[in-house]
Design goal:
The complex is a heterodimer.
Chain A (H helix, E strand, L loop, with lengths): L1 H20 L1 H22 L3 H23 L1 H9 L2 H7 L4 H30 L4 H28 L6 H29 L4 H30 L1
Helix pairs in contact in A: 1-6, 2-3, 2-6, 3-6, 3-7, 3-8, 6-7, 6-9, 7-8, 7-9, 8-9
Chain B lengths: L1 H4 L1 H33 L13 H28 L2 H33 L7 H22 L3 H33 L14 H33 L4 H9 L2
Helix pairs in contact in B: 2-7, 3-4, 3-6, 3-7, 4-5, 4-6, 4-7, 5-6
The chains are: A mainly alpha, B mainly alpha.
Amino acid sequence: MPNLIKTVAFLFRRDLTVALRRSTDILTPLVFFVIVVSLFPLGLGAEPTVLRTVAPGVIWVAALLATMLSLNRLFANDYADGTLEQMALAPYPLTLLVFTKVAAHWALTGLPLVLISPLLAVQMNLPDSAIGTLVLSLLLGTPVLSLLGAVGAALTLGLRGGGVLVSLLVLPLYTPVLIFGAGAVSGVVTGLDIEAQFSLLGAFLALAVTFAPWAAAAALRVSLD
Amino acid sequence: MHKYASPKFFYTLAGQLTPWLAALTAVLLLAGLYFGLFVAPPDYQQGESYRIMFIHVPAAWMSMFVYMLMAGAGAVALVWNIKLAEMFAACCAPIGASFTFLALVTGSLWGKPMWGAWWAWDARLTSELILFFLYIGYMALQASIDDPRRAARASAILALVGVVNIPVIHFSVQWWNTLHQPASVTRMGAPTIAPIMLVPLLLMALAFTVYFFTVVLMRMRNEILERERHTGWVAEILESEP
């Protein structure tokens, strides 16, 4: 048992280290996120009331796309150099290893998105009261995006056109998170009670944590065959 | 049971069943269309345009039913490694996608006189659209893997993930819809439907179901021939049927 914990901790640290050594990989989705959101005022006009109404949806959609862009990094490098195969052969449950990799991935893509979102909220004229909600909704929602994305990334591993394909598989599955994440923020803006949205986002997270690593591990075994 | 699961036996059986199922489809479809277009009276609110529901509602039902069947077959294929179940799941996808597309088209045709617009972000239409995307993703994944066994297993996992998500997506969209536009009243498929309108609806639903099984059997025969083309019995068939 202590071995298992040690392995998981080691894998987590290894994934962080490998990713930090190639820091452009981390910065690219983040910059993408900022650029996409900044494009909207240019397209829609800088009317503050308009920006405030569309801001929750825009920021959330941009977060979805940024997460999706980073998905191929999740398994592709380990697949290319054979590390993934060794993980599948290891005497530890692959589900747990996949979960660890997703956690490391989230810490380096989801979390930065969450941290930079207040800046974008200010840029999009969101009221101060909504900024906390935005951060919290992203904090609950982005792990779900990473977890569901892991299934897509595992299924498309090593396929031609994998990058576009993964968006086709994953984006329809993201719709509930988008609805409730953006719904929570615009609820605060319009002064509604948003407890339900947070409860549901939490429920999605619980569901995704339970099933997604398992499905992703099964998909990896198919891809590694 | 093993006899039925052998592709060779199934190929012959499906060949014998197809004409009967096709005939049954034709009879049910004619009866349903006759009752729907000539016998059922015009609706007091929607006039004649409600009649498109005799196509729209069965198509929408089938789009979900086929996805469930596809995921179920995928699960069977994953667990017991049955080739026929793999082929069934693969053959379901294009048919289910066509039903979804039909439901979307008829829904928007119905929407023009009712809402005054070709497309409204109505809850059912929206979740139907997302279902369509799910089908497309499924088919794209299947098409991009060359080895049919691996394609079948990967897409089965995707279908199972999708099947868990479909109710979540459906209720999310419904909730989203009631929040944004509470006034769009759909009377389609409401339980208060008059029996004279229910009969053609059920006939059409049955016709669509039998049609699905006819087409899926035909597709499966093709699929079997393609996958087993290097075996002796396929060569025999191809020689005897020039």
